Recover the amino acids of this structure.
């Protein structure tokens, strides 16, 4: 049976620790509660490890995560920060990326992709309530395909692919508007994606099950039988 790589949950080079900054800051003499809280928030950091080196990122530079944390009081906020995890990787040219996972359930999380380039930090939210499954850079590294998944029971994982323009760290524009392309790139997570492959700098080939019906039972039967596949092409502007 063909193994759907949407089941991949983390890369071998990933990980890990997220926490606060220097907790020894002397702020007790400041009687202004608001100012003290601002100092505490400025000290908060997301920290991930890559190739035995740690990279701290001020939380205030990651808008989506900072906004998410605003709903918590200081004690719960600190607890929530400690729960944040990261999957880290680099491009061939050495640009650093981290997928930060927060507001997690049993398996599914919200995600924000962070880029560190020339000491500048950029971030973009990814589809929420999902699993970070894989990433593939285009040959010129201008575009980054991010594969996200959602499990349905223990037998089926459905996917969505996001194409990120690495220069602006925004969602890339597609030339395609077909129904199948819309399904593969939407937040619906309706079709399993078996593989991603860049044919050239603007063309992404996606392999999916060769079916007309993607119901749970049909997908289970497909996995147990012939496993025929087909390719869908995404063209990036």
């Amino acid at each position: 049976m063909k193994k759907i790589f949407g089941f991949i949950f983390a890369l071998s080079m990933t990980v890990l620790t997220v926490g606060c900054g220097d907790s020894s800051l002397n702020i007790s003499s400041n009687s202004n509660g608001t100012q003290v809280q601002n100092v505490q928030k400025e000290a908060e950091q997301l920290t991930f490890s890559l190739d035995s080196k740690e990279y701290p990122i001020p939380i205030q530079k990651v808008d989506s995560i900072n906004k998410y944390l605003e709903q918590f009081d200081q004690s719960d906020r600190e607890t929530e920060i400690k729960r944040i995890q990261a999957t880290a990787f680099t491009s061939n040219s050495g640009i650093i990326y981290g997928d930060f996972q927060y507001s997690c359930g049993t398996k599914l999380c919200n995600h924000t992709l962070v880029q560190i380039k020339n000491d500048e930090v950029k971030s973009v939210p990814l589809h929420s309530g999902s699993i970070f499954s894989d990433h593939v850079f285009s040959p010129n590294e201008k575009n980054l395909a991010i594969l996200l998944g959602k499990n349905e029971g223990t037998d089926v994982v459905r996917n969505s692919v996001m194409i990120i323009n690495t220069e602006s760290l925004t969602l890339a524009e597609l030339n395609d508007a077909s129904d199948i392309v819309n399904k593969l790139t939407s937040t619906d997570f309706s079709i399993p994606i078996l593989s991603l492959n860049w044919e050239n700098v603007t063309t992404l080939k996606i392999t999916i099950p060769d079916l007309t019906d993607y119901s749970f039972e049909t997908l289970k039967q497909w996995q147990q039988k012939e496993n025929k596949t087909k390719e869908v092409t995404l063209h990036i502007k």
About this structure: The first helix runs from residue 33 to 43. The first strand starts at residue 19 and ends at 20.
